[in-house]
Amino acid sequence: MTAEQVDEVTRGPFDFDIRGSMRRGLLLGLGLVFISLAGLPIGLDTRILIKPVLSLGYLSLIWLPFISGWASGTETVLDGVATTKRGARDLVRGGLVGLIGGACLSLLVLLMNWFDLRDPLVNWAPPLSAILQFDRSIAFGVLVWPLLSAVLSCAGAGLHIITPKIRSATLSAVLFTLAMAIFETFIVDVADFLDDKLYGQNGGLTVMSAIVVACLAFTVSAIGLGRRVATARVNYQQSTGKTKASQTTMLIAIAAITVVVVPMITGKITQELFANIGIFLLLALGLNIVVGLAGILDLGYVAFFAVGGYTTAVLTSPNRGPDWPSWVPTLPWWGALLVTIAISGLVGLFIGAPVIRMRGDYLAIVTLGFGEIIRILFLSDWLNGYFNGAQGITNVPPADFGIIQVKGTDPRSVFYLVLVFAAISIYVSWRLERSRVGRAWMAIREDESVAEAMGVNTVNMKLMAFVVGAILASFSGAVFAAKVGSIFPTSFLILVSIIILVVVIVGGMGNIIGVIVGSIVLIGVLGGPKQPGLLAEFSQYKLLIYGALLIWMMLRRPEGLVPNVRRSRELHQEEFLQDAWLRGEIDDDANTEEVDS
Amino acid sequence: MSHLLDIEELNITFGGLHALRDLDFHVEEGEIVGVIGPNGAGKTTFFNMISGMVRPTSGDILFEGETLVGLDPNQVTQRGIARTFQNVRLFANMTILENVMVSQHCRTKRGVFGSLFNTRAFREEEAEIRRYAEEVLGFFGSRLVGYRLEQPASVLSYANRRRLEIARAMATRPRLLLLDEPVAGMNPIETAELTRLIGRLRSEWGFTIVLIEHDMNVVRDVSDRVVCLDHGETIAQGSFEEVSSNSDVIEAYLGRPLESKK
Fold first, then answer.
1. A113, A211: one domain
2. Mean pLDDT of B177-201
3. Distance of CA A217 to the CA centre of its chain
4. Interatomic CA distance for residues B43 and B230, integer angstroms
5. What is the model's pTM?
6. Residue B33, domain CATH
7. Are A303 and A387 in a shared domain?
8. Which residues constitute the domain of residue A287?
9. Complex ipTM
10. Is A443 close to B74, i.e. CB distance below 8 A?
C-alpha cells in the first residue's frame, strides 16, 4: 500500500450500508442455491477431504459465504481519504451478509420439502435434501445454514481486522490444508510414502493430520517465507541489464531442470497430467501467436490440431482408409511429422487466404465455421474411404525414436516429446515477437488500416501468423495421435477451440509465461475437454467452472493472470496514463525547447 | 510526363455524393504544395485516394509515370508515398521506437527464418532499422529520443504525437510525403517551429510534400503552390497570393456578399 493514510475514522458497529449488504447477502443466497441445484454438493459428497468433518460437496457450498464475508469488507483505499477503523462493524456486516445468504438456503430446504420440482430441476430430490439437512431433520437444516453461513461470513470479514501477518499465515494454513486434501491423488502419486501418514483409509486427511498440516503452514508463513519470496520477486522485477539477464537465465534453468526431473520421480497419474498439459500448452502457444500477437480472433483453431492428428495417423497407421492410393507411404512417426508440418502449413494457407481479408467479428465467425467444416469433412461419408468417418483411424503406432518409444501407455515419454516441441514453440514465439514480423503483427493488432498505410502488407503478415499457428498446432496433433493411438472426429470438437482460447485469455494473451501458467492452471487443475485434471471430481462441472472463471476474469482482470505489458496498457489505458503522470513521465509541451532557430 | 505525381480526371462518388469531381492535379519533384479548402471540400478524401485507402470511381493517379489505381495502401507506401493522419493515429501501445521501426516494414525484408535463426543478415537489418529510426526521431530534437524511445506513444503530448506521426511517415523512406493538417492543435510557437521543419524536410531529406492545412500562415510560408478545393472541385490554383485573392476562394470560405445575391 503506497497510499499515505491520513487517519482512521471510527464508526459504530451498525454504521454501514445495510441495503448494500442485504443485496450482497441475497446474491450470496442466489449463489448457494445455484450451486446446490447444479448438483455440486451431491456429486462431490463422496469425496472426503477431512475425515469425518468435511467433504468436497460441503466445501463447494461453504467457501462462498467466507468469500462473500471477505468481499463485504473490502474498501477502496484512496490517497488522502480517511479509512474506517476495522472492528465490530466488519463482523456485523459480514454476519448480516452470511445470515441472509444462509436463510436463502434454508428457504430452499423448506421448499424442497413442500414442493416437488424434480421435473425441471433434476437435483431437486431427496439426496440434496439429505445433504442440506446434514442427514438430520428439516428443522436442523433450516436452523444451521443461516448460522453456519453467518459464522463463516464473519470469519471472512474478520480477516480484515487481524494484522496482515497473521492474516496471511491463517489463509495459507487454510488453503494449504485444503490443497493437501483436494489434491490427494496427485500428492500420493508424487510421494506415496505420505499415503498412510496423512490420509485415512477411504481417502481424506485425518483430523490429526489436517491440524498438523495447518500448523505447519501457519508457522512457515508466519516466519515470513512468503514475504521473502515476494521481496525476491520485487527485486527481480526491479533489477535491470546484466543482473536481470543472469537472473532470468537462472530462473529458466531452474524451471527447465524441474520439468525434466519431476516426471522421473512421480507416478503415472502425474505423468499423464503433465503430458495433457503439454499437449494443450502446444496448442495454446500456437493460438497465442494468432490471437495474442497478431490479434486475429481464431475460433476454429482446432482445425489445425485435427489436420495434424489426421495427417500423422494416415501416414503411420495400417488402418487408414482403403481409398488412399498406394503411393501414399506409411512412414515412421518423425517422417510423418515433417509431412504433417508441410500439410498443416498448406491448410493454414488455404483456410487463411479467404478468411484473412475479413476483420474483427466477421473473421471470428468465419474461422468458427471453418473449424467445424474440417471436422465434418473428416466425419463425412464422402471422405469415408480416406478417414473412416466416425470409426476414425485406429492403430496409430507409437513414435519410435530407437531408444525410446513414445506411446500413450508411457505418459512420461509423451511428456518429454511434448517438452521438446514446447521448447521449440516457445523459442519461435519469443523470437518472432521481437522481430520485424512481430512488430508488424503488433501494429496490425493496434490499428490495421494504419498499419497498412504505413507499408505493412497486412494480408501477408496475417497469413503468416495463421500459418505459423497452424504449424504449431500440428505438432500437438502429431503427438496426440501417437499418444492416444487412434484419431476420431470427436476429439476435435469446437469445445477444444474454446478451451484453448480460454487458456490463452485466462493466462494472459500475448505473454508466453501467461500461456504456460494458463495451461497449468486450467488444463492441469480442471482438465481439458476430455482429459481429467487434478480435480477429476469436478469434470462434470468443468464447463460451469470454466465459464464462471472466464466471466470473473473478464470483469476483474481482463489482461489475464500474467499479462502482456502492452495488452494491459490497452485495457487499462486511463490508469496507466495516470500512473505515468504521477511518475512525471507525461510530457508537457510548455518546457520543450525549440529545435532550430 | 515529368511530374512526380499526376492526377487526371479523377472522380469519386459515395452514393449520390460527388466527393471529388474531375480533379486534375500534379506535383513536381521537390515541390511543396498546399491544399486548402473549407470543411467537407474533399481534401482528406483526396489523400485517402492517393494513399490507396479509397478507390477512385474514374480517372487515373500516376506516380513516377505508373498508375496507383488498384494498389493496396501498403503497395502505395512501398512505391514511395507516405502520409500522416488528420486525427492522429499512432500505435498507442507500442513504444515510440517501435512506431518508427514498424513503418520501415516495406523497406526491409527479413522474415520468419531470419528471426528464428538469428542470422547475420537479420541482426544487421535490425540494427539498421533501429539506427534509421533514431535518426528520424532525432530530426525533432531531443523530444522523441533518449528515455522516450522505450515509452509507449500514448504518454506523448498532443504536439509530440503529431511529430511522431511525421517521423513514422518519414521512416517509410518516401519520395512524396502527404501531411494532413500537421499543425492542427499546436500552439503558435510549435506551429512556427514545425513550419520550419517542413521546409527542412524538403531541403535536407529531399521529400516532395503535399500538405493539407487550415492555418494560412503555414500554407503561405511553406507552399510553392496552393490548390483550393471546394465541393470536390478545384476552384483555384497558383501561388498563395493568387489563390488567396481569388474571389471564388474567398467566397468558398466566407460566403457571397449579401448584395451580390440579388
1. no
2. 91
3. 25
4. 9
5. 0.86
6. 3.40.50.300
7. yes
8. 268-494
9. 0.91
10. no
